[in-house]
Queue: 4 jobs
Job 1
Amino acid sequence: MSSHTSPAIELRGTSKAFRTPSGALHTAVRDLDLTVGHGEFVAVVGPTGCGKSTTLTLVSGLEEPTEGDVLVAGEPVRGIASNVGFVFQQDAVFPWRSVLSNVMAGPRFRGVPKAEAKERAREWLARVGLSSFEDRYPHQLSGGQRKRVALASTFVNDPEILLMDEPFSALDVQTRALMSDELLELWAGTGACVVFVTHDLEESIALADKVVVMTAGPATVKEVFEIDLPRPRKVESVRLEPRFVEIYREIWSSLGEEVRITRERGAVDA
Amino acid sequence: MPETISATAVPAVGKTPGTERSRARARAARNRAILVQSTRALVLLGVLGLWEWLARASVIDPFNFSMPTKIWDQLKQWALHGTAQGSLWEQIWYTLYEALLGWGIGVVAGVVLGIAFGRIAFLADVLGPYIKVLNALPRIVLAPIFLIWFGLGPASKVASAVVLVFFPVFFNAFQGAREVDRNLVANSRILGASNRQVTLQVVIPSATSWIFTSLHVSFGFALIGAIVGEYIGATKGLGLLVSSSQGTFNAAGVYAAMVILAVVALLAEGLLTFLEKRLFRWKPAQPGEDR
């Protein structure tokens, strides 16, 4: 019932503080309000190390908020929900499993019979263009191919909520554009909502319906921008459009200030 | 004229030096391998020859230091006519049996407890100090106690092999379980893995390379445990062969038993390396090898 009326993700006054090894309390996220609608693609941009990733771990259920509420489909998050997918910044593929077995992992963990899991995995491998690589091990693949494996093993679980933590930041520029296009294509067929964390403003505008600018850490929402560029988009061509440049300038005037604050603090750690 | 000649000649000539060069390189590599092998053999021959000569010339006392030919005779005699305690093969089998059994038990216990300690922080916090104390003990002194507890049979040797094997395996498994990539664990939990699945399908596979490192070392420890146990008191085994040779001032016998032990240890090591290669097909080649 409530899942149709309430937004897909809602954070209300959420804060998260960590105990650092030295015993001090470090606030990563402070008083955060954020709403993500069904099927919406939201990009979160902010200065390096401001706590963007923490927001994702709160939504995924990997971490619990210190204060405030995190609601998914109107229900408070308790533990890891089954309808969430998470693509990490670093490679999180199983190095000892073949490509096919990696993509089968999710369904197998969830108790799907082997034959069916294999079929679904093959289907997604075909969609990311890795069908002929199913017997390879991750170390035999390129960075972009490993990312495709990660995408396939996330999408194979049919997530309604897709969390992505700077997924393409380790890739070279060309591969990155290619992967962004592929992500948009894959996403278009699913109806899932996406929260995409990045520090690359261009990437966020090219991909998202809504760009959320975070403040310098502890992170909270500074401003939200609607991106009215038409879909379907091609990442390489959309960034040449005049409207794109206009949006970019507008958001940068907001983001640039936070970046400057971070830089002045000397917080260059990731 | 010269133009056309070179145009037709270049592809033909261009190919030959390439294959020639790679052939020359292969030949050089082969020659070097032969050189290494033959020098290696020469070193062995030199050492054995020097030993033999020194002993025969009475520079070193042949009674105390023996000589290679005597050791060889001793080996032949044992192999063909058996030892004082029965056939040589039986002695080898006894020692191997004790070492393998002790190794197996020690490895299983070490891996299971190591992973459990690595995964369950409470267990590690409570029992950690005790494990450290036990590890600090020179465990070989337990061999006489085991002899009192379990008697002259194989059980006391198995027990000393177990205590020697357990700790290195345990610590490596523990470390392996602790150092699992946090991203990988987070990812598998998101993908839907239960705690049990994380342990069995993520932690254990990532800890295997840690565990395998300890398996190599620990088989040597298992042999030590078995031999020392036999040496202190036994009815059969290579350790007993050493101690009875020593008791009859038969230096050749002690060396001969050492030779047998070395061969056994090397064979076991070879088998383990083979298994490791099969198990770690997913691993990239060593850095430098793949380039």
Job 2
Amino acid sequence: MTRQKRSRHRLKRTVAPYLYLSPSLVIIGLLMLLPMVTVISYSFQNSAVLRRDSSFAGLKHYQAIFADPVFWASLWHTLYFTCMSVIFHMTIGMIFALMLNSDRINPTLRNILRVLYILPWLFTAVIIAVIWRLLLEPNGVVNSILMQLGIIGSKIEWFSSPETALHAVTFANIWAGYPLFMVSLLAGLQGIPKDFYEAADIDGAKAYQKLIFITIPQLMPIIISISLLDFIWTMQVFPLIWITTGGGPIYSTEVLSTYTYKLAFSSYNLSQASASAVVILLISLGLTLFYIRYQKAR
Amino acid sequence: MAEVILENICKTYGNSFRAIDRLNLSVEDGEFLILVGPSGCGKSTALRMIAGLEDITSGSLRIGGVDVVDMPPKDRDIAMVFQSYALYPHMTVFENIAFSMRLAGKPKAERKKRVDEIARTLQLTSLLDSKPANLSGGQRQRVAMGRAMVREPAAFLMDEPLSNLDAKLRVQMRAEITSLQKQLGVTTIYVTHDQTEAMTMGDRVAVLKGGVLQQVDTPKRLYESPVNAFVAGFIGSPSMNLFEGKLTGDELTAGTFAIRLQDAAFVRRPGLKSYAGRKIVFGIRPEHLYDSSLESGRKYQTVPAKVTSIEELGSEHIVHLNIDAVRVDSGDPDAVQDFGMASNAVAKFEPESAVRSGSEIRLALDDTKLHFFDPETHLAI
């Protein structure tokens, strides 16, 4: 082989992988990287989008949103909404997964429960929002049941009262999201060798000891992965809140996503909205890096 | 330490499938008993019933004189070593061994003392902080043993504990487990499908087939005096050669050849006379067949045979042969069938043997080592 031929062959081998990757790289660049860079650049401009000759604004918009009490309220609401959702998704998912994995439940009943438990996952956010708005109406089913049971004295306006609205949307989101945990944990449970439990039976382990010493440690990788993913996704929830409360009443359910949306499309302050979006991006990025590091560590 | 007594133990599954049928076994204090049989014979089920992991349909089970049929596993004072070892991957070797003590609420100092003691016995001291994933197969096996030993049980139950190891390590662990069992003196019931393990490890061996106990005896007695054709075929490697024959006077004929039996054969087996003029099943082990051209084979009668293939193992030759006789199936479902039917007999020749594949030879056989079975019941005569 001549030298020329050899170097051409080498060049081919270096370039070929990138050629194969190029379609997906182009798509990622156009659909993800470009919008991200544009939003970041908007956040440093005055009157972004609205004016052609927009000027450099420095950190002005960041200072503005950090000075806005509604931003801090939104951040707090987002954290509350996300943390509660993840904790309850995990707890309910775990309880249901344990139930579905148990030999003590009749197989037919188990199959019925399996379908019932997974139902919330089949609904889109809009349908979930509508269902819970109807159920939690002042004259809705929930109020009527609670009053008949004597738990509440008068009708509660779950979505319209500042005291209850955030809890109500969080509750609806918990209901909508636990099946992901349930399905993942069920798969995990089914992967735990039966021998582990039999060995523990012989060693004299009680049911709760088997849960603490075997089941939970065995499920830990799944619990951590799914919790991180759920945290990232729940932080960005928009439609459920937008349709149920729209961030109100009096900002009591305002989260970062609705706050940003309003800045952009109600106040038409696209520069500040971009700054707020960049803040969300940075938080998500932090969590994602944490997730990737965890996955790599495994 | 205790004796384990099974009386008329039965196990029937929902669909009336009987996995174990009236199993009677008595394992003496400190004895090493092997439960052996082909796959699906019910040996693991029997062990799991003793452990309490399977319900006993009927019959009685006593461990150390106590009826344990209705007791949960933890109260039976037994420890079990699983085929998979069942080591908890998230715990260190120390935590794995100490697990039962931790559950029992034993203080930390006591746990440490006991685990250190066991680790010394099993040469695991340097590995106590490792996780099972970082151990070799043999080390994992030893940790599983340690977890069983820590409880100081009345009896050890072992379910094919060596089947996940490679062949060389298995031989080594065989010896280790046997000597450990002797050292501890704990009653041990050991399940395996490997007849070599059964023969080399146990004080006594119980052979199971289809949920029915065939024979319990010392390895030597099982080898020399199998009660039926199944045990004869199952114990020993390669398996005993079994053929159909006909007894005429003192001559055993099969196909085109005849073997003259000595009077001693009839003295040892008084029942043999009644088969005169009738069909009979006869068997001979590969190690009792000889190359007639060698010194060792000169003194025996010979029959014609054709060599089909040879496995040269260095210390011996495993020679596959075809002789003019109808082979009888011992009933071992795991036995490898020669579908080509090219060979119907196996012999073990000395390495000096010069027989070649495809050659016609005279095969010498030690007629005093023949086994006889009833053609209908396959029971030994």
Job 3
Amino acid sequence: MKALHDTWLVYSRAMKLNIKQPVWLVVMIIQPLYFLIFFAPLLNSFDDVPGGMPGFQNGAMETFVPGLIIMMALFGSTFVGFGLIAELRAGVIERMRVTPVSRAALLIGRTLATVTTTLVQALILVLLAAPIGGLSIYWPGVFLMFGIIILTSFMLGALSYGVAIVLKSEDTLAPVLNTFVQPIMLLSGIMLPMALAPQWLQNVADFNPFYYAVEAARSLFSGEMGADAIWQAAAYIGALAIVLVWWATRKFARAVA
Amino acid sequence: MLIETKGLKKTFKSRGKEVEAVRGVDLAVKEGEVFGLLGPNGAGKTTTMRMLSTLIEPTEGHAVVCGHDLAKESANVRRDIGYVGQEGGTWGEVTAREELVMQGRLYGMSKRRAQQRALEVLAAFQLEDYADRTVKTYSGGQKRRLDIALGIMHEPKLLFLDEPTTGLDPQSRAHMWDEVRALRDRGTAIFITTHYLDEADALCDRLAIIDHGEIVAEGTPLDLKKAVAGDVVAIGVAAQSAEAVELLGAKDFVREIESGEPDPATGVALLRMYVDDGAAALPELLRALDAQDISPASIELHRPSLDDVFLKQTGRSLREEH
């Protein structure tokens, strides 16, 4: 009970801070909008290819938009650690670690705030993408896709906070996270489906949990509720989320700032 | 006793090398006192404080803080102590009131109780006028007062202050001393680290001097200074300092004499000696020097300071490092 209450306290503090800086919500949505407006139209011509392009059976926009939403969750959550470093340096984390607050709450509360903002961004993007991309939205699928987004954001938020605590410096955090997030994005088939990839690249992608997340999002978006990628993504990312939350909680408990 | 430690040690591993930051510290802090840990930078003050406030685990040794075993009952220790780190503990877009209420709630207060207590604390630290401004707009002194207000939100028995006046202007510093004394008068024991001699002297009921991770002296400032015994005479000589040392050291009322390095600019070396009675010794010392045609460049006579205590224990001056 105490852990839940503490998590709520840490969450509400983090949310209050998020709300005070709404500019971030806008910044994080602008990037996918650029993709939607300046890149997505290039894909529309694939719909006219005789016999269809591999991976685009559901239509170009129906394939691209779900991937874009996962990409936004990916970038929106991976870099939350930056905000932590300033607080770490100012002694805020240390001050909280001396209180009897649950150690897990310090991490999970913050991570849940990340999940919340990511969900809000995803919802806004879905609502904007429908008219821009000319999509009809299958809401039950979209809601299940939000489940995948919650897991993704939870896992990456925890990872980002944990890495931030270890590195303690923006200067090293940026390259480390970029090195990690760029190949993951490329190997997940967000820009173009992995069905277009040569065999070896597909084999590599099979080890990337976000490949399944993107595939699952596409299936859910188009109403294929029974696709294998859905449970694969949930299991893969869910398991990783548990491991990373556990790891990051330990880092929080022992942080020497 | 609020704190009792036995053989507290902390070893850090840094790039494969082991660094002994604290090498076996025995301390006792009583209820209601201001206890100071005085030492140069890197002496192990902060590491000791961080161990006692549950932030890092000791490598070895044992400690009881507020009646709870530090290693086994850290949750109970946390409930009874407050801690204000060197960096403070606030940042960015939050207001003093929000953070105080949150702090109270992290200690398990109800929302209403935390709001009430925040009002008391804001008043006690003259922060009412800024209570709803974001902390990034605060001056150094205001920020420091808020840091301490956060540390005592839950009325701890014992408050840790890590270098509370570093970086403050003289006026804010004097205010901070008053705040610390006021807290002590209301029954809170305070454990403070500092590298300022005057701060340790003026503020602490008792103190321990730490150097290279070890306590080299412990007691009230007065007792520590008395232990140096007698008065301190410092005579600067521009030449023949070795002869002067021999000459003055031969006097039976000179207990100890040591010669500092000559100042690179003036060439004056400071001879520092401890004598039984400074006023009586001074004319004799001067006569002795005069007889050998050594003319002093400067003469100083003073009661022993904490710096003399430190110098005697470690052979170095705390002043030289700052």
Job 4
Amino acid sequence: MNAATTAISSPGLDWQGPGARSRRREFRWHTLLWALVFPPKRHRISLTVPGLFLMGLAVGIGTAAYNTASNILFITLSLLLACLLLSGLLSWFNFMGICWRMRPPGAWRAGHETLVTVEVENRKNWLPTYSLWFELATQPRHPPGPEKPEKEMRMRDILAAAEKHVTRGRIFLRERLEPRGATSLDWGVKPTRRGEAVIELGAVGSLFPFGFLRKNIGTALRHTVLVWPAQVEYQWKGAVAAHAGSSGQRTARAGTGDDLLALRKYEQGDSHRQIHWKASARLGQLMIRQFAAESHDGYVLRLDTPAASWTRPEQFELLCGFAGTLAEDLYAAGRLRGVSVNGGPLLETRRIRDLEALLDELARLQPVEKPGPGHAGPATTKNIITFAPEGARGVTAYADGQQTASA
Amino acid sequence: MPTASKPRQLNLDELRRLNWLLGGAMALVSLWTVFFLDLEALGLVGVAGAVILATMVWPTIPQRVPPLVWELAVPAIIVTMAADFYFSPDTLPVLIRLAILLVLYRAVSYRRKREDLQLIVLSLFLVVVAGVLTVALGFAFLLLLFTACALGFLFVINLISASETGMAHTPQLETGWTRLGWGQFFARLRAVIDWRLLVFAGVLFATVVAMSGLLFLIIPRFELATGFFLDRYITRKSRTGFTETVRFGSVSELIRDQSVAMRVDLSDASGLRESPYWRLVVLDEYTPDGFKVSAQMKAQLLRSQRMTQTLRSRKPPLHPVGGTWTFYIEPGVSRFLPLPGSFANLRLRDLAPLQTTYTQNRGTQAPEGLLDGTRLVALRTEAMTMTAFQLDGVEFSGSIPDSAFARLLRVWNNGGEGQTDDRNYDARIMLKGPVGSANEAVLRRVVREITDGATLPADEFARRATAWLQGRHAYTLAAKLPAGAGKDDIVRWLDSNEPGFCEYFAASLAVLARAAGHPARVVAGFHGGVLNGFENYYMVRNSDAHAWVEIYDGKSAWMRADPTPGAVAAAAEAATQAARQEQDSSWSARVDSLRVLWYRRIVNFDARTQVQMIEQMKSFTTDSGTVLRARLDEFSKRLKAWLDRPWDAARTGRTAGLVAGIGALGWMVVRLGQWGWVRWQMWRRPREFDPVRRTAGKWLGRIAECGVRSAECRAVREDLRRLRYGRRETWPEPRGVFKRARQARKVARSRR
């Protein structure tokens, strides 16, 4: 967890909490008093162990006070009760003006630790806020169905099964949050399954000021996030497919090849070695040589997931991870031309966004009854990588029918 | 244009240091309360306090103690407690000594959250027990001090707990804070402290005190008949001479003690026209060592004991002084209650085992009890704490009616025939004096000198005997008994010219009266006192201790006779003072008045007082409302009359000028205040405080409240942000920006 304190940037409408602007209402005494008697929805106050002890102590002293009619005991009892009231009052002050939001997370990757960031602002003018915690939880949006139990489940088992896919965490505001200050807290979470996941800020709590009362404010802050398939280890047998591509061809893209592609004006930051002196002298301004990128014929990934072929869930998960990893590696090498999923149109992968779209699709991919016809076109008759199960657990990638990688 | 500001707060080590400081301070306060207790633990408290103070100042000390000592500490405490239980007759002192040891152990060892909470509970135990057993005013101060320390301690515990969540606990980390120097720590503390937060904390603490006071007042009270009290588990020796036996010299020892023995709160002091005699104990039996309460009277006291809270006199006084008298008797004075004379009702604060010589539960028509005339009321044991009781219908008189004694004396003089009462009080004990031929010869001679051989009535005999005694003996606090074989002390003194003090004079008069055939008894108590000038109550000091005589007139009453030289003159002086309502207005009286306030408002607060207070509040509210309404009516009438007067130009001008002047004056005062505030802040925080940035911040808030997003609004907001956060070189002209902001807000409001 990491916390960084900054000043408030700008108020927004997505903030939640007592200090959020949308929740600010006109102050009324009777509203306040009623709120003290009957806490607002989702506000929960419970006693801690020291608080229970304090209550027990108060009951004991009260009993002794009535038994002996000793005013010293009565005044001690009054002080204890007043301390309890003060505790509630300070707790109320502590939460006053506090608001929070979750920074919209990007896509996650299964098996990789990622950070959930909660931004907190203290909009009070001169009172700091101490000792908050934020209860976070994440779970698949569509958790897998429960396995058929061998015997009748007890309530505890049912609850345990429901909690099985939920990852919970608590992050703490260790340092005080200054008035008109803001901070962000990170929660490290490692998703285990690909697919859509829900990240939820369940409650904000505090033991402030004396640890007698545990105050929780429930929130309804939820975000849905896509979890990309996990990266998997695979064995690349590139030599088998190498003949299919014609490496070293010049392309029309700028790059770091040896062939001069064009000249352009000098821009700040350009290497002086790339200055074309002759052209610069002729044109009267600095010109830079631009070389063509070397390119290869890329691959097209064709991913068909008929349910009849992919009967084992673990093998299907491996397929998604393998396809995603292979696509990333090919893209990084500049050799991924496009992707076709379940007979869909060929989606070209020219930019990183295209690759991310592929990973998004892989995150949601499920076995289908019957894949549609392919639209890869004549240009894609070569270098098409397809996937097939290998044994009970493995997955093999074939380039034009020849095994090229396996996981 | 955000800016980052470094948070000013203590780090974990500094918080732990503060925790150590507050825990030690709290433990010391709890030990301080034990000093109020008269226990055999003051040495232990002193040692424990010194050790705690030393470890507070040098927190590395516990590290130097071998681990074996820490391991053996708890078993050693348990063994000590067991031994203490075995040897000590009382339970509570053992528990207190155990708590002291545990507080010491917890305060000087390194603590985590659980040990911190244990320290709070142990300290609270000490404070509460000491408070209940002493009911001292100092306890109120210490309780507030303890509350402040405990709340601060809990606050810091919670901060530490929040800061170290999830951190690994290693010995190095947990004791690393001990290397922090005090100078560095206090410098950091000073840098971190925000005066606004300090003021806020002070206000909150005052709120806690006020809330607890309010809760104390409104907590419903009801009496439980079977209570227990801690003082049963502790015994205490009397510090004064007012027990069943008063030896010669024991009262005079008190005269050197200037501390207040009791306080008498008078609801109506107008009836106090003479210096009062506060009767504590009646000594009816003569012994060569002095006078004492006879075994028969003690038996009567013991037989009469019952749990009660009120005592009603069977025959109300004929000439009572108005009002209710509330007595607050300091612990250790006596188990006998000081009574000025006859009374109608006596009411204790709590149910208590009460002993009395009054005959009770016989109805008003029943014959008077045999010992009613002694007017003795006593608690079963001497109270550990302040004792409070109230009297109604008090009669101030030099005589106590007692018609039964004459009948009783007749019966016993006739050989006890007709004595049907099973108490068998031998009234002739009031006629017995020194025995032996030598003693009797002296007494006969002296009585003859006083009476000239005549048979005098009791009052005349008392007057002449007093004159004889005062003619032979002077008053002194350092009495010396002359030597002489075969004679009792008091006879030897009587027969000499040695000076003496009140007990000698009183005992001499009593034995002379008995030798002359008048039943007489010595009464010990207090004489006089002074009115407190601040809270209108009577302060009676131990130095007012006195002894005097009551002589039976032979028919129906006991008459007071005070033979001590100066007593009559002092009584006259006191009566003059009382008549002039002379009061003690010294600083000590002011401090003492706080104690009475504590007794009145806190210690003596009960269900009856609660109801009275509620009624007073109700009547006060009603009366205040009535008065306010009347004043408003009066004011509105005056205003109407003023408005109805003809308005000419001069009057209109004067009025307008006055209104304008007041407005201008108010405006100037406000502006001057603002100017002073800004200057003070610039002087106090020359680097941080900037009025332009501050004003820009205010305007940013106002503009944001408008919520308008017009182009002009955005531009003004941008300029305001530059003024608020930007460098000075980039500032636009501030006045112009503020003027535009004002206009933008005006426009925004008009559009709503």
